[in-house]
Design goal:
about 300 residues; two-stranded antiparallel ribbon; Nuclear Transport Factor 2, Chain: A; alpha+beta
Amino acid sequence: MKCPSCGARLGPADPRCSYCGIVTAYGAQLEQQRQQHAAYHQAAAAHHDHAQQQQRLADAKASLAKTARHSLWWSVGGLIACCAFVPSVIGVALGLRARKMASKYNLVLPVQATAGLLLGLFGVTEGIGVIGIAVVQSAQREERLSQLEQALGTRATAKDLEQEVACMLTEKRLLMGGFRDKQTIDDFECDGQVEQKDKQATLFDVRFELSSERFVVKACLSKGERWSTTGFRLDNECSEPDDTAEDYAAPEPTASGTAPNATATATSTGSATTAQPATTTSATSSTRNPASTSTSK
């Protein structure tokens, strides 16, 4: 085989002439095959890259949708939990992450992500506000307790209980969680009378608001070294069971129509029943009810 350009002898597998450098027919065939192989590999690589890109895009869409849903769930949970606003913070963080993912992959931001972000921000604000209100209320309660303690001084050690002292002791007990273990009361009013029997006393018509519910109760007080409020009653007397609990069940009436703790005293001929005097103290005066004696013939 000779070179078509210079006539030099060529081998059958020579891609170029060793004298003039011209490409032989075999060399042209090899170059064509090389280009075909390169184009094939380039197409295969492009196809592989496209497939990977599509898979990454699908994964990003799925992750974005999941993140958006979780953002909304956490934010709603934060609104329900109110004061525990950590779920709302997580909801906000997931909402921001969803926005970043949507921007990175040029995707449409799901509505759930936007809703989760807004609700999360609202939940965080609400939680901070509730905690702030609780802190202020706690400070006000402590200040009021200090004022009551200073105002009481030694007046709570007196033998006869003053109406004003009874009111201050009752308010103090309420602020310390003495009614249904709750310490926040509103609109406290105390202008009822005090009925004292030795070292026991009852303060009537104590009114206050608790958890948006209005209560009118009797305050029960007793004296040790000093007077203190020992409890409250809604309908019962202080000597009867405490009926202020939310799950309190009143005793069933007996066949005679009276409760088991009610007592009746029958009088016979020649017997007498004497009522013991009770001391009643109002906000402005102290009156003593005279003893009354009834005798059946």
